[in-house]
Amino acid sequence: MKAEDLQNLLHKEIPITKALAIEVLDLELERIIIKAPFQQNKNIHNTAFAGSIYTTATLAGWSLVTNFLESNNLKGSVVLAKGEIKYLKPITGDIIARTTLGSEQALVKFNKQLESKGRARLSLIIDVIEDEQIKAQLKGNFAVI
Amino acid sequence: MKAEDLQNLLHKEIPITKALAIEVLDLELERIIIKAPFQQNKNIHNTAFAGSIYTTATLAGWSLVTNFLESNNLKGSVVLAKGEIKYLKPITGDIIARTTLGSEQALVKFNKQLESKGRARLSLIIDVIEDEQIKAQLKGNFAVI
User: How far apart are CA B26 and CA B99, in angstroms?
Assistant: First the structure.
């Protein structure tokens, strides 16, 4: 999938992503960067809203796993089973979430599980960055069913 | 604060809550119920979107702590420090998040901390319910600073 196609898919199928003004900045097989602009996603303290930070991070993880399945002609729906987020420092500008597919070892295990059982889980660490600093970090556990 | 005033405050100060069509159904000193309608918050699987579920739960917790401070003439800004959510079952309709202030003991500790240090933390369990079942559960750690 191209970054543009993913962005269109999100805006069409998950209507709230349009309100968050989600932009897919980069999409490769093994990595993704997603942005939610500050103006639409600020809070009462004039920093980035915790719900928007979590949502942007979640979308990065969900999209990367979905794209991985599609690129490998694997079937299945991706859903988030569990999310753990730490807000380390306030974000005063755009929300930028980035993640990678993780270790080759984890992917091999994931592929094997998916082939043998038709379902599998994959955990991703998604960083939310500003000025090259990790301002929030989500551990997302994604289930393919 | 009245439920209506809280809803207006959220829509005014956290613009994305308007797009989620957040409604405050009930607000008492010790409990709150917040709703996000299905239509605005559905996902690609035609169930409630994980990001909207988390956000609605977060808003319930944040609002209850903020209202508690205001009602007791306590000063401080409420921010979310950490969130852990489990998605137990798909939600096929509106997102309804509810929580209570927790034990008297925890509140006494919270009040003492706030008085002596000017900052304190409070953890809340926020249930997201549908048909009287808990479909998702957030443990939110709120910091008053």
Answer: 11
Do residue B20 and residue A16 have CB atoms under 8 angstroms apart? Answer: yes
Domains of chain B by residue range? 3-144
Q: Is the pTM of this model over 0.90?
A: yes
Residues in contact with A143: Cβ distance below 8 Å, sequence separation at least 6, in sequence order? A78, A79, A80, A81, A119, A120, A121
Q: Distance between CA A94 and CA A39 in Å, rounded?
A: 8
Closest Cα to residue B55, out of A112, A6, A49? A49
Q: Name the residue in chain A with its Cα closest to that of B82.
A: A86
Dihedral angle over CA of B90, B128, B48, A67, nearest 10 = -70
Question: A51 and B50: CB-CB below 8 Å?
Answer: no
Q: Which CATH superfamily is domain B3-144 in?
A: Hotdog Thioesterase (3.10.129.10)
Residue B142, both tokens: 């709120």
Smallest CA–CA distance from A85 into chain B, residue: B83
- Does residue A87 sit at the B interface (CB-CB below 8 Å)? yes
Going residue by residue through chain A (145 aa), what tens digit of pLDDT does each one get?
999 999 999 999 999 999 999 999 999 999 999 999 999 999 999 999 999 999 999 999 999 999 999 999 998 999 999 999 999 999 999 999 999 998 889 999 999 999 999 999 999 999 999 999 999 999 999 999 9
Per the structure block, which two tokens stand in for B94? 């509106």
Q: Which two tokens stand for residue B68?
A: 């508690």
